[in-house]
Amino acid sequence: MSADRVVVKHGDVRAEAAGLAWLVVPGGPPVVPVLEVHPDRLVLARLDEVGADPAAAERFGRQLAYLHAAGAPAFGAPPPGGPAEATIGRAPMRNEPAPAWPQWYVRDRVLPYLRAARDAGSIGAADTAAVEQVCERIAELAGPPEPPARLHGDLWSGNVLWTAEGGTLIDPAAHGGHRETDLAMLALFGFPYLDAVLRAYHETTPLADGWRERVPLHQLFPLLVHAVLFGAGYGRQAGAAARTVLATA
């Protein structure tokens, strides 16, 4: 095996290895091939990238709908064989199953990072208060109930590589969650032909009414993670997203 044709990751790779295996579903997006799994390292195929185009984006939207529809045992459930203590980027992320999305989202995806960002001085008092108001009103803001979806969990544009096979998933923080969270993360930092992705997704598995207005609600989680990792600029964005959620409720 040529060293220049693989990517080797070192450390605790259990969550990523389990996540990549879990994301391989019939009709779903291609996933970076896992070549070897060891206790302290993960060997992946190095992908040859090509440019995105509208047809590939539409195909990716349909495939993502199939991935989400493959489901999960519960909100917060880790992939089979994956640890409860995982990561998103360099931040810790706990995967603990819960019966209902709104309360789980607040408990395990918003408040831990809000507290860490506040303690680090990465989010101000007014922005913290806005996020806390969203948490207090989560039951009315969450939208219609949805079953747990099988999420990539860190689905920003850098974790979708365009190859000859289409939009290919890498670097997951996989868990059971709300499908709108993956879609909101796609929109957060820009994604090629996003309108085509969303149109094809909605045609394959229609989204609930009001999903566009809930995008900033689902972006609170990644924005707060970024505030913890990268500083106050993202804390201000989290506060702005929270105020948008409250204003459109």
Automatic annotation (TrEMBL):
Keywords in alphabetical order: Kinase, Transferase
Superkingdom of this protein's organism: Bacteria
GO molecular-function terms, A-Z: kinase activity
One Pfam family, short name: Fructosamin_kin
Family from the record: Belongs to the fructosamine kinase family.
Protein name in the entry: Fructosamine-3-kinase
Organism of this sequence: Pseudonocardia thermophila
Top-level taxonomy: Bacteria, Bacillati, Actinomycetota, Actinomycetes, Pseudonocardiales
